[in-house]
Amino acid sequence: MDMLWNGWGDPAKAAPLPETVTGLLHDLLGVKPRSTPVLGLEDVRPPAVTAAPAALRALAAAVGDEHVRTDAQSRVRHTRGKSTPDLLRLRAGDVSDVPQAVVLPAGHDEVLDVLRACAAHGLAVVPFGGGTSVVGGLAPQRSAFVALDLRRMNGLLDLDPVSRTAVLQPGLRAPEAEALLAAEGFTLGHFPQSFEWATIGGYAAARSSGQASAGYGRFDEMVLALTLATPEGTIETGRAPRSAAGPDLRQLILGSEGAFGVITSVTVRIRPLPEVRVYEGWRFGSFEEGTAALRRLAQDGPRPTVLRLSDETETFIGLAQPDAIGADLASGGAGCLAIAGYEGTAEDTAYRRERAAAVLADCGGTPAGAEPGERWAHGRYSAPYLRDALLDAGAFAETLETAAFWSRIPDLYTAVRTALTDTLTRAGTPPLVMCHISHVYENGASLYFTVVSAQGEDPVAHWTPAKHAANEAVLAAGGTISHHHGVGTDHRDWYVREAGPLGVSALRAVKRRLDPDGLLNPGVLLPTD
Amino acid sequence: MDMLWNGWGDPAKAAPLPETVTGLLHDLLGVKPRSTPVLGLEDVRPPAVTAAPAALRALAAAVGDEHVRTDAQSRVRHTRGKSTPDLLRLRAGDVSDVPQAVVLPAGHDEVLDVLRACAAHGLAVVPFGGGTSVVGGLAPQRSAFVALDLRRMNGLLDLDPVSRTAVLQPGLRAPEAEALLAAEGFTLGHFPQSFEWATIGGYAAARSSGQASAGYGRFDEMVLALTLATPEGTIETGRAPRSAAGPDLRQLILGSEGAFGVITSVTVRIRPLPEVRVYEGWRFGSFEEGTAALRRLAQDGPRPTVLRLSDETETFIGLAQPDAIGADLASGGAGCLAIAGYEGTAEDTAYRRERAAAVLADCGGTPAGAEPGERWAHGRYSAPYLRDALLDAGAFAETLETAAFWSRIPDLYTAVRTALTDTLTRAGTPPLVMCHISHVYENGASLYFTVVSAQGEDPVAHWTPAKHAANEAVLAAGGTISHHHGVGTDHRDWYVREAGPLGVSALRAVKRRLDPDGLLNPGVLLPTD
Fold first, then answer.
1. Whether A60 and A90 share a structural domain
2. Which residues of B194-232 are buried (b: 16+ CB within 10 A; e: fewer)?
3. CB proximity A91 to B under 8 Å
4. Residue-wise pLDDT tens digits, A494-505
C-alpha cells in the first residue's frame, strides 16, 4: 500500500478532530476553517521530464525497463517528505521538487549501476526509503534528479541466533522487518513514531531513535555492520561489535543521510521477543519534578524500556496520548503525565517495574495506573494522522526536537518554548507549544516540541521565522540541532554551525572522495560547493 | 615518576620469576638464560639532533624554553612504546626511532602553536601521553619528528554532577583522573591493564577498553565531547549524549591515533563511586562451556561489571592471576577459570551477583570462591611486570588481541592459536599460547592471546612471522585486527585490508584536510602517500 500522497499513512485511517478540539482551536488559537479546494493526486501535473532519453535508457539498462518509472503519480509520490511545510506545499499543488524518474534497483550491484548511469548523465540521486523525512531530506538542491526507491531491496538476508544479529536490506519496512524477525523469535525493538512506514535504510541514514530507546537503544547503537554503495565503489564495515581498529566507519555512514552513498545492507543487533509488555502512567506536579525523576532512573536505574514525560501543556491538551486528544480537558489537566513501559522476560520486567516504581514515587510521582500507558501504546503511531486532521481543520501543526546534557535541559526547554511563542505571537498567531522528553540517557535527554497555531496567510512562509528562531534557541542554549529527525536541508545551516567549519570541511572531504561529482543528495546534510 | 625506560612501570616493582616458572620455561619451552649486558639509560647515545636551530627556537617560542627538551634521556624516554619488540630493541640500545625533541605544551593554544611551528619547519609530530602503545603507535615513518608530550595538560577542567560529566585534559594519567573524580564522589570506571601509566588522551586516541567494560563500557562509549587541535585549526564536537545531526564526529576522532590531530580535551561520562566491589572465581570444564556462560550473561544478563574467562592453558599456567603465576601448577589445573566482578550499590550488586551466579551455575560453572577474584584484582596491572621478568629470564613474551561476533569466536580462537603455534614451532621455538575473553558484548567478545616461547637468535625478527601469521588468521576468521590495542604501525597493513580501499581512502581524505602536510604521526594508522 502507498502512503497518502499529501499527508500521512493509510488514507483509511484518517479521522476528523473531535469537537472538543476544534472548539479549543477556535477559542484558544483563533483557528478558522479553511475552504481550500481539495486537490487529488490525479489533478497534480508535475513539470515534464527533461532527462535525456539516453539517461533513461541507461537507468533501464541498470534495473530493467519496468523499474524506471516516469509517470506523474510515481514522481509526485516521491516528491519531498512529510514535514508540515512539505505537506502544505503538496496540498497547494506545488511539486517543484519532483524527481525526473523513480528507479527501483533490486540489489547492491544494481545500485552501483544506477549510480554509474547517473554520473554518466549528470543526474543527481536521492535515496528513498519510506519517504518519511521531516527535515527536507528528500529535497535536493538540484533540479534534475532521480529518486532511488529501495523498496525492492526488502529482504532478511541472514539471521545468526548465536550472535543475535540479522542482516537486513535497506528497503525493508519496519513492520515487515519485525514480522520476519518475530517468525524466528526475535525483535529489533525499534519503534519510532514513523514505524509503520519507515525503512531500515532510512533508520540508519538518519540516525533514528525509537520510543523504546531507554531499553533497546537508538538505531545507531543497534547497527553492527553496514554496506555502502557509492559512485566510487563499495565500503563494507563492521567485523565485531566494537573494535579499536581506527575511527568507527559505521558512525561515519550512520547519519550521512544519503550524501555519502546508498546504504545497501544493515547488520543489526536483535533481541528475543519480550514475554511481557506493560506500560503505565505516572503523574508529577511539574515538568521539573518529572524531569528529575526521569534523570534518576536514567542514571541510577533500573531502566524502563519506555520512559517519557509530557510537560504541563501537552498533558493538559491530552497529546500525551494522541488517540485521546482533548479527553483530559474536562478534568482540567493535572500536572505532568509520564509513561513508563517495561518489556522483557516476566521476571526481569517485574523486578524493574517494582524498583522503578519505588524510585518514581520517591521522586514525587503518583501512579496513574495502566490506562494512560495503554492509551499511549494504542496511540503511539497516531500523532501524524492527528496532524493531518489539524491541517484539515485550518490549524498549523509541526514538531521539532533537540537534545542536550541534563544540566542544560531546563534552559533549553525555556529557550525553545519562548522562541516559538514569541515569534508566532508577534506574527499574530499565538501558539500552543507542548513538549515531552521521550529519550533519556545517563548524561542527558531529548526534548520534543509540538506547535499548534492558526495558519498564516501563507502558512509555510508564516512558520519559517518561528522555526528559525527555534533553531537559534537550540544552538544558543547548548542543544544539538536534531536528536532524531536529522539534518536534511531544513537544519543544514544550523548543523554547519554546530559541527563547526573544520568539522564540516572534514565531512566534505569524505563526500568529495566518495561522490566526486556531487550526485548524492546535493545540499542535504552538507552545503553544495 | 618516570616509567622504566626499557621496560614497564615502576622500577621498584620489578621482581624475578618464581623458580617454578623458570623451571617450566626451561623444561617446556627450552628457554635458556641469556647473558646480555644490561644497558643503562645513561649508556644510550641517541643520534645527534639535526633539527634546525630555527625550528627549536620556534618550538621554544610556542611553549617556553624550559618545555623543549633535547637532552638524550628525555629523547630516549620518548622512543617507541611498550610492545615487546619495542622493549627488545631498546634493551639492545637501538634508539633509531628517537625524536628530535620533546615538547610540552601547557594547553590547546600552545598545541596549535606547536603544530604551526612544526609545519613551518617540516617536523613531524607524535602526540605522546603515557607512552604505553603496544602497536608501534609512537614510531612514525619519518626521521625528523618531535614528541608532543601532553603531561602538562593534566587537569580536571569541569565536573557537572547533574549531567554526570567531567572535562579532562589529555595528559591526565588515569590514577590521577580517578583521584580527582573520587574527591567529588565519582569514578570513570576505566581500568585497562595499562591503567597505572595510561592517559586520558591516549585512551581516546586508541579506543581503549578497560577490564570493567562489561559494567562501565569501553572508553569510546564514555566519551561525550572532544576537542581536537589540528594543523588546520580546531574541531569541537559533542553537544548531547546522542544526536542525529550528521555522522558522529566523535567516533571519527576516537581511534584516530594522533593521525588527524591532537586531542586536547575529553568530556567523559562519570558514575558515582561504587559502594561495593566484589570479584569471585568460577570454574568451567572447558573454554567452550565457559564461553557459552559468558555469552548468556552478556546477552540475557544480569551483567557483571567484570567478566573474563581464561582458556585451559592460561588457567593451568596461572596467568589468570598474574601475581600468582605458577601457583596452580601443583594442582594440575582444572578446566577454565572465570572471574566475575560486581561494582555498584550494595543492593544492585547483591541482586546481580545472586542472579548471575544462578546463570553461571546453570551453564555448568562451579563457584571457586572469593580467593581467585581477589588474586585477580590484586594482580590486574601486573602482567607487564611479568613480561619484563620473562624477558630478563631469556624468554620471549608478547600479547595480541582481536574481537568478533559470537558465532565466529570458536574458529577465531583456533585459527589464531594454530597460526602462532605452527609458525613458532616451525621456527624451532614451540610456544605456550594462552588466551582469555575479557570483554563481552551482546553480539560478540574479544580474544586476548599471550604467547611465551624461547627467544630466537634475533628475537624481533624471530617473532615477526608469527605475528604476521596471527594477523592473517584474524582477518581470515572474520575478526577485527584489534579490539583495544589499536592499529599503530604494527597493524596498519592489515587494518587497511579490514577497512577496505575505499574506507581507507575516505579516512585519508579526512587526514589530508586536517593535516595537509602529513605532519601528524606519519605512517601510524594510515599509510603515507
1. yes
2. bbbbbbbbbbbbbbbbbbbbbbbbbbbbbbbbbbbbbbb
3. no
4. 999 999 999 999
